[in-house]
Amino acid sequence: MRNALGLMLASVVTAVVIAGVWFWTSSPRADVAAPQTVAARPAETLPATATAKSAPKREDVEVTAAIPEKAPVAPQPKNTCANPDALGVSRVVEIDTTGGPAFGFQHFKQLDFLTDKEVVLTFDDGPWPVNTPLVLKALADECTKAVFFPIGKHATYHPEILKQVAAAGHTVGAHTWSHANLNNKKMTEQQARDEVEKGFSAVKLALGAPPSPFFRFPELQHGPAAMAYLGSRNVAIFSCDLDSFDFRAKDATQIINTVMTKVEKQGKGIILMHDFQKRTAEALPTLLRRLKAGGYKVVQMKARAPFQTLADYDEALVKDMKLPVASTRPVNSVVQTVSD
Ligand SMILES: [Zn+2]
Description:
Layout: H1 2-26, H2 30-44, H3 57-66, E1 91-95, E2 102-103, E3 118-124, H4 131-141, E4 147-149, H5 152-157, H6 159-167, E5 171-172, H7 189-207, E6 214-215, H8 224-232, E7 236-238, E8 242-243, H9 252-266, E9 269-274, H10 278-293, E10 297-303, H11 311-321, H12 331-334
Parallel strand pairs: 1-10, 2-7, 3-4, 3-9, 3-10, 4-5, 6-7, 8-9
Helix pairs in contact: 2-3, 4-10, 6-7, 7-8, 7-11, 9-10
This protein binds zinc ion (ZN).
Zinc ion binds at residues 124-125, 175, 179, 218, 340.
């Protein structure tokens, strides 16, 4: 009798367990299904200029993580674009800068991530009054994004302009402290490291937040020791595919023609320009229109994680800036980029 009762009890328990497992596996798992549904929404609400299928991976992750029990949040209005025919951003790529990957076929041919007709817009040597804000306006009018490589000193002169660059959603890296040639034989390894670190710390000080671990060598002079150091600091190195030579162009038209001729020949690439240069600021509205008309698409490069500045450089910079100023000469009479 006891055995029979035990057998019955065991059968009931087994049945309950089976039913439970069945119910658990076959029931609609709202917690898993919901994010997929909602995740598709931001892609649909991207501006007309961005293709829905190329919605950045990062946005999917953000939306998925935000889901749990709360009602879905309305799509971010930050991507709205008033210009229906804008150049826009066709896709956003996130760069894992571990070990210091290098980009730009002019010097580095390992990482070929752009497809036909894709370009990356990059601007060096800012921030600078008038010119940088004009570049920002031209980019905003086309709802497109770029990577900026500011000079550390310039960042300390015009932090408010650099803040505008970051606030507009552009990627901000660094371009040394004083635009020194790090491949110069007279430069010691320590001096080169100081130029790199102080440059990044200056950009961080200006922005109030760490920049992206993206770096461009002044004059594209890639010293081997500095390259190795940047690799150890997990900083991505940017050369370029297309040099606009805007710093020596006689007018805006020449810049437009140089870029368009090169991009038509090469089909794609990272374009090097200077927001520091007046002619570039003048050329940009037309150049962006020409790129759009030619069927080119802009890819924005972002870093997976921000640059980790070294506290010593951050502190030294703050200390330096509190020193009384010995010279009262205007900035543009002291610092001028004469070549790049
Ligand atoms: Zn430069």
